[in-house]
Amino acid sequence: MFRHPDLAARSAKVFAILERKCAHAGIDAPDLASLENSPFREEIRQEWANMLAHQLPHLPPFEEFWSALGEVFAWLAGGAVVPLPSYPTRDVDATWTLPRSMSAWHATFPLEMIRFAGANRLKVEIDYQAEDGRWGPRVVEPYSLRRTRDGNLMLFVVNDRGQLRSYRLDRIRGVRPTSQPFIPRYIVEF
Asked: How far is Cα 14 from Cα 29, in angstroms, rounded to an integer?
């Protein structure tokens, strides 16, 4: 959330909402120290999947979530987030923008799973058929969905060798989010 392009500058508003929600529940708004010193931390770690797996298609590992809390609370306190560069794209239609909410894409796979994974910094495995006919799974970090000037929708990623790549959506045959987190190298636009 704190790195999302639409929310990065809204930490004060997000914190105000957190305070109101906590006040409504009759509890103090948490801070990093209260969470780190909580006697319930181990119980939360043990029950992580039981508490949340039914709500999410794939759950980030607890330790990855916990290790990011320092950055989240620094952001909530008004600290600056280190800006990430935009994913370098070429031949894109600059007038097209990604819809901000779920959309009917008429794709042969659940595209919203890619958006979910990117927004939650989880790698995805895609089944892809290259232009030369090669077929196979690829584990990638999803960053952006763009439309090219010639009308193709492209998924922009970093592959498992750390290389920038783009994949045409009409050549993707399947998608599976993984539980493998990634640390973004670029702005995740989902």
From this structure: 12
182 neighbors 141 (Cβ within 8 angstroms): yes
32 neighbors 73 (Cβ within 8 angstroms): yes
Report helix, strand and coil shares of the chain as percent, to nearest 5.
Answer: 30, 25, 45
How far apart, in whole angstroms, are the C-alpha atoms of residue 81 and residue 47? 30
In the β-sheet with 164-168, what is the strand arrangement from edge to edge?
A: 164-168, 153-159, 135-147, 122-129, 172-181
Could you report the average pLDDT of every consecutive run of 10 residues in the chain (190 residues)? 72 92 95 92 91 79 86 84 70 80 62 86 92 91 91 91 91 89 86
Q: Answer yes or no: pTM beyond 0.85.
A: no
